[in-house]
Amino acid sequence: MVRINVDLTSPVPAYQQVIQALKIEILSGRLKDGDRLLPIRELAKILKLNPNTVAKAYYTLEDEGFVESRQGSGNWVKRRAPDLDGLRRSMLEGEAKAFLEKAFSLGATIEDVRRTIERIASHE
Amino acid sequence: MFKKEFANVLKQTGWFVAAALALPVALLVVRLIPRQPYFAVFLSVFQWGLLFWALFLGASVLARERSQQALEYALTLPYSRLGLLLRLTAPRLIVLGGLWALSLCAYVLKGNEYSAVNPLLLAFLYIGLFTTSLSLSPIIENFIALCLGSIFVWFLAFPAHTYLLIAVGWAKGFQLSGAGARGLGFLRDISYASAGYIFNLLIFQIVLLAFPFSAALILSFRKFDVRPSAAFAKKYFKTLGLSILIFAAAAFVMTFLSVSMRFRDVYLTPDHKVVEFHVGGARILSPEGIRKFKTPYPVSWVKSADGIHFVFSDYGNNLSCLDAAIAEVRTIYQAANRDRGIWQFWPYDGKVVFLVKPDTPIVISLANIDKPTSAGSNVTTIPFPAEWAQSETFPRLFGTGVNDGRHFWLFYFEQSKKPPLRLWENGRVEGIPLSDNKPIRSALYVNDMVIIDTAEETKIFQDRGTSFELVREIKDGISFSLYDRDARVLDQPRAEVIYGKHGDKIAKLDLKALQVTDIAPLKTADGAWVTSFFPESFLLTEIDSEAKTLKVSSICDDKVKLLTEFRDFDFRRQGDRFNVQKSGIIIHRKGTVSVYAFPDLLEIKF
Amino acid sequence: MSDTILEARELTVRFGRKAAVHDVSVAFAKGETTVIAGSNGAGKSTLLRCLAGVIVPDQGEVALGPGLTRDKIGFISDRLSLYEDWTLQEAWRFHKNEFRIETREMPRIEGFELEAGRKIKSLSVGERTLLHLSLLLAQRPAVLLVDEVVHGLDPFLREKFLETVIEAMDELKTAVIMVNHTLSDTAQIPERVLIMDDGRFILDERREELERKVKKVSGEGDLPPDIPCLFATSTEFRRDRYIYPFREEWRRNSAVNFEGIGLDEIVKAFIGGAYVQKRVR
């Protein structure tokens, strides 16, 4: 089951969040090559999103090469993976940036952040 | 929607029919009404119940939507407001029409045996009430208020019609202020008589009521929605007001044109002038020209006194006389107050006997035609004695005379058990001993004898001075009759022989031997009348409906001689009639009047 | 717009003397999802009913776009208008005939089954709502007008309702116009947000735009004066200021924390502020 949570209060638009989540699923290998994505309608129903929103996400993923859409049968994870490492790295950076923004808005310093990360990581 | 609505209306109508079938049983069983065949009661219940059902059908047009909270849903169905209205209304109209057709069938098959109302007339009432309640139902949500309101509005049509008739009368130049209730009744009578019941129902149920209410509904329903009535009601009432004005104007014009001012009473004077009366007055036509007379009040009844003087009553309760010789109208009598009217009158020998209603006990009044008067001051009155004084039936004057210097008048009572009587000028009354209770068809006073025909026998009574004695009974199963109700046989006439009808033969009654002898057979079965101007002449008029002819013959010296035959005369056609007078014959045929003068019966034209 | 499917032109609707909808014009595009929010009595339901044809406007008109016919418009409201005495079967047969629907069986909502013989008046509010929705969807509507029904449904039916609507949006490309008080879990469905107040539109924006442009500042502390404050609340315990239209550069230039908020709160801010930003033409 795909784990996607759309945060309604986030400044990130919903379709972006969907894209991010799907990319994570694909990059982490939970969604393998040749797997079929949920039909637009189903995903929209589950997430209570406008199907257009889900459609937009799927099209963007297709543009970026993660997914291919086959006429009449839906959207499939693409067999030939793109530069996964580079992608992984840029996604990581993106996630880190978002996390840091949030941390700083809470008033944390770089030191606080580093200590917190180390503490949590040591418990994982 | 249409089918569903139709099924729904039929189901509800089933209740109505069941009630209509059951109610007569209840009424009869509980003896609430006198014993009658079930079908008679059912027909009445059904016909009048249908009036209420028409109200219900109209009022219930939106009832289901309202009671089942489905109004919004109904308004989203894929057709226009008018489309919705049509689908809801059509089934109701169809069911109403169907029920009406059923009542029509029942009436045609059996209704003549019972006193049912002509369904054709009721149809107008159904439509009027139906459209009123239908039209008001989008406006009034509460069903009871809607029904009561519709009935109230429907009732208003009746006085509205009366006011319309008053307006028409005013436009025709009649003076109605002194006419009282009878004067207003005149307009209704005139309208009904000239244009018929159907026309009048058409006016006040359809033109004054159904049309404006339908127009208001149809034109404003486009704006109908779920909001409480205010916005829609404004548009509706504006449209209704405008429609009422327009249709009232149309009704006015239609009624104005329909009130017949055609000359209905036409007379020929001995010097061959034609005198014509209509509701608004009279005119005299002669070779010199036309003299017109306008009466302030509508003329109700005209009688010729001697072919020169014409006595007429009007709705202002006056009795007047037109003297054709000097072309003048004189008032003989004026009723003291508005509620009394000239009930009957008989001119004779320079005088006129008349009865005023509602005088109880009956009083006869006597006036002189010739004496110039405007106040009617020379009127004498003689009361009937108490037992004959109830005016439940029509007294008819059939003879007058003078004995020992005292005047008397002979009356018989139509369709009554009371025997005929002689009234003396001092108030004394003698009964004529007609013992059986058969209705009198006609009575004649001639040669000091009273001849009475009662359909199966003829009785002859001799005047003994202060009483009458039965001297002859002709009992051969048919009576000898002389169809003559006008004033011609007053004035104490004398004759040797009278010709008349005896069954299907022309016969003569010998006034010396008091014998009836048949002299010629009557050929046509349709209608034959013997009119007398005795002792000078007797005429036989015969109608043949098939051949559409009117034959006029003279009866003289025991022989019947054909004088002339008029073609294309259809007695069954409305308005075709004829009138035999001393100077000539007047024929109303296909809307035109032709006058033929004796002795040659040449047509008089001006 | 060339793909306008439904348009209101200068609509005015009066109840008595008061105008519930005042000279409102708005156009909806094919397949567009719109939410109309606003305070009570703002005129939202009235406007929706005008679009549905239930109310006839006193002025102005509702124009159907090219190819749209009345039988392709579905309207469902919390008034739950259906013939109560009918059974489901009768209601379906009637609806089928009126709207010339070709399918023989009433379309079923997965997981939601009702006996065909039950009378409509015996159904609960939620059941009637879903029944009505399935009737409407059988029409294969191009426009679906939904008035305040969602919040009256229990969670299970609510889920079913939204799923069904979403399915229609995807399959039929139905334009959905919803009138809602509170958005909660429906917040992501609409693409366009209209806010009505006092019979007029005070806002007409794309949802994503709106989410970007409205931020909240909590707590005490002064705001730089040139930052537009749409609405401010102040209670004993908190003070919130809502900023519209927000610009990203302000985040860098000041120490103030601008929070993103959900659509519900955005709508609240607008209603509270009754801020007339632009009249929708």
Q: Can you offer a commentary on this structure?
A:
- The complex is a heterotrimer of chains A (124), B (606) and C (281).
- Chain A is mostly helical.
- Chain A folds into 2 domains: 64 residues, Arc Repressor Mutant, subunit A; 40 residues.
- A two-stranded antiparallel ribbon of chain A has the order 1-2.
- In chain A, a hairpin with a 3-residue loop joins strand 1 and strand 2.
- In chain A, helix 1 packs across helix 3.
- Chain A is globular and about 55 Å long.
- The two termini of chain A are 23 Å apart.
- Chain B is an alpha+beta fold and 606 residues long.
- In chain B, strands 1-2-3-4 form a 4-stranded antiparallel beta sheet, with no helix packed on it. In chain B, strands 5-6-7-8 form a 4-stranded antiparallel beta sheet, with no helix packed on it. Chain B has a 4-stranded antiparallel beta sheet with strand order 9-10-11-12, with no helix packed on it.
- In chain B, helix 2 runs parallel beside helix 6, helix 5 packs antiparallel against helix 6 and helix 6 packs across helix 7.
- The radius of gyration of chain B is 30 Å and the shape is elongated.
- The termini of chain B are far apart.
- Chain C has 2 domains: 202 residues, P-loop containing nucleotide triphosphate hydrolases (Rossmann fold, 3-Layer(aba) Sandwich), CATH 3.40.50; 70 residues, no CATH class.
- Chain C is 26% helix and 29% strand.
- In chain C, the strands form 3 sheets. Chain C has a 6-stranded mixed beta sheet with strand order 5-6-7-3-8-9, sandwiched between helices.
- The C terminus of chain C is likely disordered.
- Classes of the chains: A mainly alpha (124), B alpha+beta (606), C alpha/beta (281).
- Chains in contact: A-C, B-C.
- The interface between B and C is medium-sized, with 26 and 27 residues.
